User: Fold this.
Amino acid sequence: MKYTLAAPLTLLLLAVSPVRAQLPPITQPLDSGTLVRARLSDGSVVRGRLLAPLVPPAASLRLCLYPGRLCTGPLDDRTRTLPVGGLRSLEVADGTRARTGALVGAIVGVLLGEAVRGLAAGLCESPGCVPPRWRSYLVGAIGGALWGVVLGAGFDAWRPLQ
Assistant:
């Protein structure tokens, strides 16, 4: 009997709360040259650098497709004009994934360092040829973190425009 009000109350709360698609995607101004990722209402994704400042309530945004060569002018084939009404969401580039890559790389490096240490212990016949555990962890973590930074730097990090 205590659940009789739960369903109507839930439906009422869902009906009152705004749906993400109804919210305007552009709520703050963006300067020209800002790298953005636009998700369009048809499901496609367009990445590019703004060619003109974007100030709410703008009707459209002009961008030069990214990655690729620079646009030479407004008639360049890499220039796109997108209507703001056709946007589902707009995200702004926020650095790279280098930090995440370093963390994942360090964890993988420690695991590989321990595996190599175990292999060396199995193949070694004298007691002094296996490095101490802390050294294999340290070398694995540093090596893995360096590889992780290199790989993570190639991926852009995005944050939603609020």
